[in-house]
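# nightly structure sweep
# worker-07 picked up a monomer target from the shared queue
# config: single-sequence mode, recycle default, output format = structure tokens
# input follows
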Amino acid sequence: MSRTLAVLFLALALLVPLASAQGEAGDNLVGYYYTSDGCSHCANVNPHLMGDWLETHPSLVVVEYELATRPGNYVAFEELDRTYHTGLGVPVVFVAPSQIFVGDSSILSGVPPLLESLERDPASLPDGSQSLDTLDMVSLKGMPRIWHGDRILIRTGPGGDNEVLRSLLADPDPTRVLGGTRWTRITPELVTHPGVEAPFQHAVQLNGWIFQWNGEDVVGDGNDATITPEPTATTPGECEVPPPLEVGKIMALAAVNAINPCGLAVLVVVLLSLITRAPDQRRQVLLAGLAFTAAVFIFYFLYGIIMVTLFQMVPQLASMRIWFTRVLGVVAIVIGFLYIRDAFSRTAPAPSTAIPTGWKGSLKGLLDRVSSPAGAFLIGAVVTLFLLPCTIGPYLISCGILSAYDTAAALPYLVLYNVIFVLPMLAVTLVVYLGISRLSDVKQWRDQSVPRMRLVAGIVILVLGILIALGLL
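# output follows
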């Protein structure tokens, strides 16, 4: 009898660490999933990789990079392509350098056997793969979601503690982990993708992350009532900040557009009309120049919103965003060549870089009627349509880039773009008002500088186009 009891105690002693090991991260397999909510092939994978496989394969950890609503995730996706030449199509599941699955058929047929093999032999992790205990969540690029079982971590910003984050996913009792850290209770959100609806019962916000789970709730108020919940990353664009390089692109394209001679030519005619009518009323010239510039700014800003919205309405762009950006780069190269060609051309410039010849008569008739600042504003609003052919190129490229972002996130960049765009108009207005130069001199300078302006604009936009098309900017 005593021998039997000894055997039982020995068996229990062995089972305790085995049971504890079920909550450890060492037997887990991390798969990086690149997907887009606008992709039908991704919709075939989503219900499995972020649904039933999480239930049937408890070893699975999914680091999800969604590209349609989180533009910052393109950085991670492009790095994957540069390193492993996976191409720019989704869906993609990366497990290890020797285990990369591209396309829904490859993922659906290749991932389950890998998981089953791991469950039969926990030591069968592919070379170069990661388990949860080696996953550096804090250093991950972009704004990923990390799925494991009936739990999810959602990145909302910088920060975090790897040990705490891993324990929240792996520990059988996440409330015990939360008992030793600071957090703020928030309302859990339904996480959705095409083919997936993942409800959660509980949610807390902790440094840089949201943790949502099902089961027993945590007791207490987070150990720190001063923590303010951060916005969740499940709302498209709510937590996204466009990468810093986007600012450089927008400013460079705006600067190219600003040195386009069309707007300056129209402004000079407006000011000339006013000076001819009232040569002694310099204040009227200032107000008219400011009114005209304000009209151009306001209406170009509205055109920008319309173009960004139209780009966003094309669902295919979400799953082809990187290719779309490359196409915009090619468009910029073509426009750059047109500007350079017209800089050296002795004939009339193309409509892509100048006001169409057929429109000039109507435009002149409108400009001749300007007699007040109010009239200058109205004419400025009307002539923006005449200016579009020779200014649309750089603006179209900028709006295409900004369409990857939520409209609210794109608005500050549209404001910045148009501020830069109208700066030369403001400069001309102030130069004439302050008497630094006569309007006739400004007109002469503008006429003589048109070729140089087109050449500079062409070179800048050509270089930008090459960098964008090659994915270097």
